[in-house]
Amino acid sequence: MMKKTVSTWAVLLPLAMVLATRSAGATGTVGTTPPADTVRLTILHLNDVYQFQPTARNRGGLSRVATLKRQALKETPHVLTLLAGDTLSPSVESSAEVAGEALKGRQMVDAWNALGLDYATVGNHEFDFGDDVLRARLQQSRFPWLGANVVSVKSGQVFDGLKAWDLRDVGGVKVGIFGVVLPETQTSSKPGKDTRITPFCEAAKRSVEELRAAGAQFVLGLTHLTVEQDRELARCVRVDLIIGGHDHDRVEETVAGTPIFKLDEDAIDLGRVTLDLDAKTGAVRKLAWKVIPITARTPDDAAFDEQMKPYAPLLATLAERVGRSPVPLDARSAQNRLGETNLGSFLTDAFREATGADVALINGGAIRADRVLPAGTMTRRELYSLMPYRNELVALEVTGATLRAALENGVSLSTPDGKPPGRFPQVSGLRFTYDLRKAPGSRVTKVEVKGKPLDDAAKYRLATLSFVAQGNDGYAMFKDVPVLPMSQEHLSPWDALGKAFSTGRPAPRAKPQGRITVLGAPRGGLHAQPSMK
């Protein structure tokens, strides 16, 4: 993976040369006016966009992107705007309710419709609400969704509402585009029993073959894969360009002659690829890539804002104050999957108190804000951003042996230098030690509940999320455990956190409390990449 701060990359294919412009402020143009026998195509691309509003740091915002799209259309009539996956979930708005119904990504499709998106490929998070919701969002969309490797088991065809590929005439040049999503979606999200995510290379080969047979002269792969998988794709099938997502990192490189471009998340930047194509053959004569920062300097688009007016009451509600935190809260995704954080301890403390449990355990992957929230006022948006997935708090009666097995599962995928697993446990009411030098399944060396050694035969009241209680993230030991009745039915994590923020009980601490001890870690502790997918 190549992470750069460059703004432009120009590729002169006829000379078999790659020219990388690395100076700040480079324009990325390939000439003001293309020759008469050339078709200029501009591709605007984004990936992993979870909100249509600017971020907390006032970056991004699809209204600003709409302004840049209008500017591009003034320069050339041939503009394609692409989304390389992940937008329906997880986000604050997708978890919010309007007229008693959870949006579940509806607001994002409305935003993409307002922007005038041309194509999207499905990402892993498009399946977070299940197949039925995804179908509803596909029907709502005024643009095609691509997913060549998303297949119905019953029909053997591509998932209903998706296309494997599409062909578009651009100034007389036939441009083909196909989409694929990473196979891990099968287990990391919630595709239905009839839905299979098949190998992406095979699906891409089939799509490219069909596109070429249909007359495609230029073929683009719109992918939601890891960068390693994008490289594999470039090697297994010949395409002219890959526009990708998922990594939340800027990537620019050429593999097997195929340029690969990816951006970070939430539209904080807009990618712009300018292509000069031979009008007769579709061959690439020139290619330039430019990354445009989306900041407050870019004005909003009035037409976009007008179409999104129905969501103004929701945005006002999300800005409401729910309480305060006396200390900063570490909501960085990677840190909550590596070890104890002050936020992880605060969340589990609040959940344990709300359910009257002895202990509490949640998966670190449920914590999604991916930043340190400053001390002070907490709004409803910040409350929802901490845990945007729609879950319920539940109480289970488990044996000490089951609790130990849960902790073993939580640290089973942890490694000294690997990707932090979403199943990593944040806990309350207990302390435990695990050893990375030991084999998974036998790593937990010590567990104490309320200062006493865990009794495998004893019964404990456990507070957790419904996602965990249903056996997800490897917590199969909870799957058949009956849920205990509670005084408040359908208690949500937001209910418990809102009460804690408003009353100050329990109060978050400034630092972790030593609840989780790791042995066998490298000197300097465990470290991970800054963002998670």
Automatic annotation (TrEMBL):
<keyword id="KW-0732">Signal</keyword>
<feature type="region of interest" description="Disordered">
    <location>
        <begin position="502"/>
        <end position="533"/>
    </location>
</feature>
<feature type="domain" description="Calcineurin-like phosphoesterase">
    <location>
        <begin position="42"/>
        <end position="249"/>
    </location>
</feature>
<comment type="similarity">
    <text>Belongs to the 5'-nucleotidase family.</text>
</comment>
<dbReference type="InterPro" id="IPR029052">
    <property type="entry name" value="Metallo-depent_PP-like"/>
</dbReference>
<protein>
    <submittedName>
        <fullName>Bifunctional metallophosphatase/5'-nucleotidase</fullName>
    </submittedName>
</protein>
<dbReference type="InterPro" id="IPR036907">
    <property type="entry name" value="5'-Nucleotdase_C_sf"/>
</dbReference>
<feature type="signal peptide">
    <location>
        <begin position="1"/>
        <end position="26"/>
    </location>
</feature>
<dbReference type="InterPro" id="IPR004843">
    <property type="entry name" value="Calcineurin-like_PHP"/>
</dbReference>
<dbReference type="GO" id="GO:0016787">
    <property type="term" value="F:hydrolase activity"/>
</dbReference>
<feature type="domain" description="5'-Nucleotidase C-terminal">
    <location>
        <begin position="322"/>
        <end position="480"/>
    </location>
</feature>
<dbReference type="InterPro" id="IPR006179">
    <property type="entry name" value="5_nucleotidase/apyrase"/>
</dbReference>
<dbReference type="GO" id="GO:0000166">
    <property type="term" value="F:nucleotide binding"/>
</dbReference>
<dbReference type="Pfam" id="PF02872">
    <property type="entry name" value="5_nucleotid_C"/>
</dbReference>
<dbReference type="InterPro" id="IPR008334">
    <property type="entry name" value="5'-Nucleotdase_C"/>
</dbReference>
<dbReference type="Pfam" id="PF00149">
    <property type="entry name" value="Metallophos"/>
</dbReference>
<keyword id="KW-0378">Hydrolase</keyword>
<dbReference type="GO" id="GO:0009166">
    <property type="term" value="P:nucleotide catabolic process"/>
</dbReference>
<keyword id="KW-0547">Nucleotide-binding</keyword>
